[in-house]
Specification:
- By secondary structure, the chain is an alpha/beta fold.
- The chain has helices spanning 10-13, 20-31, 46-57, 77-84, 93-105, 112-115, 153-171, 189-195, 197-201, 229-247, 259-269, 284-290, 308-313, 319-325, 330-343, 391-412, and strands at residues 2-8, 35-42, 62-66, 89-91, 119-121, 125-127, 136-141, 144-149, 176-185, 207-214, 217-226, 251-254, 274-278, 299-304, 348-354, 369-376, 379-386.
- The protein has 16 helices and 17 strands.
- A six-stranded mixed β-sheet has the order 2-1-3-8-7-6, sandwiched between helices. Strands 14-13-15-16-17 form a five-stranded mixed β-sheet, sandwiched between helices.
- α3 (46-57) packs across α4.
- The longest helix has 22 residues, at 391-412.
- The chain is elongated and about 85 Å long.
- The mean pLDDT is 95.
Length: 416
């Protein structure tokens, strides 16, 4: 089954409202074996709605429409649907009674605009809305199904969950679509793709691989499709093992695993603790670590040594080191690491110092230059990083790189 999503609303195109409906629909449909092939967002104009419906009719079996069903004059979806299906609006007594009850319970008068919401295209099946006043509509034309729902997310979700999905399951024999995510860090997408080139060329036709990159991380999504769920799961597990054979060093988890928690959990398994000493990241690494419930079991705390005087007075970085090598140097982050572990009584630590930007760079140390040290005072790894992003991106990339360095050092005793 192939589906398409048509979201209607000028507010979506102006950027005033985020289109969460399309994302939610895509997720729910995939869960029952329906693949969304495309999503289109259009304005509140009848001509655009008619064009969108005709366009999606050519390639999809199921077309899901959200928006434009309110009581105001800019809501024209129902009239457009009447033109598209060559039908007329007709009052629905069941909906009218439900609307009267809706307003009575809230102690509000029902205006004529609200009364007009009881009018639906004659050729549709009404879909009950228990959360609002705009009911949904189900149309069938040949082997195509069109479902129109309000754009208010909680109303759309109720209609979809309680009305639409049961109808779809009853009407169609659906295949299974199963997703499995392999979470990697510390390797760029292009390098990971090169490692998996042979693997991808040997994938069976019912399994697809997608790369979903983010700052310092790449999520691999394996998608299996078929009629027997157990067979798909076996096939996916086989592919996961093949990926592990090639890229296990970069894999920090699967599906819902949280990157920020991985290094800490490994340290907890050793019965040890960790800390951070942060300059350019301003406590962001500590924020990520402490966003994980239970992190107090292994995280001692952080020294945000933004000023050089704090590096010296609190962390014990030598004035000679600062003068000879500078705040952004391998020697400085090593002393920051050792000092933080001592001050905070921790077994492992992360220390970072760099130039996040937009100013502060030099020809020798441009914006995006960062030194990281991760590990224990007597067993650590250092790395020089060079990032091309803006201030926020450089901070995020630094945090991910530092946590990944610590993960690998603890797990693999990897110093180089």
């Amino acid at each position: 089954m192939k589906a398409a999503i048509l979201t209607i609303g000028d507010e979506l195109l102006y950027g005033q409202t985020i289109n969460t409906n399309a994302a939610w629909l895509g997720y729910e449909l995939a869960a029952i074996g329906i693949r969304v092939m495309e999503a289109l967002t259009i304005s509140d104009e009848e001509a655009h709605i008619l064009h969108g419906l005709e366009y999606m009719k050519q390639s999809a079996d199921l077309i899901f429409i959200t928006g434009g069903l309110g009581p105001t004059k800019d809501d024209v979806t129902k009239t457009a649907l009447c033109k598209f299906f060559k039908t007329t609006l007709k009052p629905n007594p069941v909906i009218l009674e439900a609307l009267e009850d809706f307003f009575t319970k809230r102690g509000r008068p029902m205006l004529e605009n609200n009364r007009q919401q009881a009018y639906l295209p004659e050729s549709c099946t009404a879909l009950k809305n228990t959360k609002g006043t705009a009911w949904g509509m189900w149309f069938e034309e040949g082997n195509k199904v069109f479902v129109s729902m309000p754009g208010v997310p909680y109303e759309m979700k109720q209609i979809m969950t309680e009305e639409v999905l049961p109808l779809i399951r009853k009407k169609y024999q659906l295949a299974h679509i199963i997703h499995h995510h392999i979470l990697t860090a510390g390797i760029p997408e292009s390098f990971l793709s090169e490692k998996l080139e042979k693997f991808e060329s040997e994938l069976p036709p019912d399994i697809r691989l997608a790369y979903l990159p983010s700052a310092g991380k790449v999520k691999l999504r394996l998608t299996g499709t078929g009629n027997v769920r157990a067979e798909i799961e076996v096939n996916i597990r086989e592919q996961v093992e093949k990926i592990k054979a090639v890229a296990e060093r970069y894999i920090y988890g699967y599906d819902a695993d949280i990157f920020e928690a991985v290094a800490g959990k490994l340290i907890l398994q050793e019965g040890k603790s960790m800390c951070t000493a942060e300059s350019c990241t301003g406590g962001y690494i500590a924020h990520l670590i402490t966003s994980v419930p239970g992190s107090s079991e292994y995280f001692k705390g952080s020294v945000v040594s933004y000023a050089n005087t704090i590096k010296e007075q609190v962390l014990g970085v030598s004035a000679d080191t600062m003068q000879q090598f500078g705040a952004v140097s391998e020697q400085t982050v090593v002393e920051m690491l050792k000092g933080a572990c001592k001050v905070l009584d921790a077994d492992y630590g992360i220390a970072v110092s760099g130039i996040a930007g937009p100013g502060g760079g030099t020809p020798e140390k441009p914006v995006g230059t960062v030194w990281v040290a991760a590990g224990a005072p007597d067993f650590y790894k250092t790395k020089l990083l060079n990032f091309p992003g803006n201030r926020e991106q450089n901070i995020e990339w630094t945090a991910v790189a530092a946590l990944e360095m610590l993960r690998r050092l603890v797990l693999y005793r990897e110093k180089v």
